[in-house]
# Entry
Amino acid sequence: MPYYTPARIGMPLADVDTPALILDLEAFEQNLKRLNDSLAGRGVQLRPHAKSHKCPEIALRQMALGAVGVCCQKVSEAEAMVDGGVSDVLIANEVVGAAKLARLAALAMRAKIAVCADHPDNVMALDAAARAADVTLNVLVEVNVGANRCGVEPGAPALQLAQQIHACKNLHFAGLQAYQGGAQHLRKTEERRAAIEAACEKVNRTTALLTAAGIPCERVTGAGTGTYMFEALSGVYHELQTGSYIFMDVDYAKNDWTESGMPRFEHSLFVWATVMSCPAPDRAIVDAGLKASSVDSGMPRVFDTPGVEYIKASDEHGVLKLSDGVALPLGHKLKIVPGHCDPTVNLYDHFVCVRHGKVEALWPIAARGALL
# Structure
């Protein structure tokens, strides 16, 4: 099947075929700057999460502005980043299974690689894979700080796992992974702040035990777009794993940002869609449905078009509700803000990068579909 690209460099946005994933470069660059400016003098480092964009070009731009590296969730994502020139990757997740562990160890020959663990059997398997490849793997203990997903419990259980890692010849205990994912979309600022304060207490309890046991904890890493300033000001975290700030989506935009110390980031990521049917005065249909935009966090939002609401998605169709007096002609194109940026990005091969209404670049989403 011939490979088809919806846009060419220099093409007006109006001529870009749909559905396409549009990146507004001006808003994107402003978001990069706003985050960096907000962290100036805070004494923390930025390690953005590449699962949001899956694009080495974006990772390299983040690192050019001072990020120490990036996070990934899967070995295949990390491979795509390293292939694209990224030199420092933390897989902020557990890696289980012989095939994946062999690839992880091989990747550590090419770049600075770290990974998380929360089970003694996984630590043994990591050590065996590193020994077979004659490498040393950096391993962080993932601590459950409230999200109740992965992670060993704080305190003594985390200490015991760190001691096991510390005793392994081919592993280096590299610190704690302490991501409170459940706090990111708590709507009220005070709710998010309280969740991070509770997470910090769990981290402090754990690092105190590590210190008493003579095991250095060189870094605590975590945080996300919804809470990063609370971690930055805590005196507990050394690295911040913000990801969605570069794009923003409908779900993050619902958060209250007042008195958070964090800037408001702009929507920079859009699904470019075409009105493909006008079946009734109060309804129009666009060619961007479930296969064009994720709805796991709610419906997308039609951008900068008053009186038009995206209300339903099926495989290939998005249903728009039109207010009285609003009409969208057949063939009209519009921007749709994804409900959740990460899984939406995973549906596309390229970002169509637009500046001043023209296509400036096509950036490959090299880690699209990287699930292994």
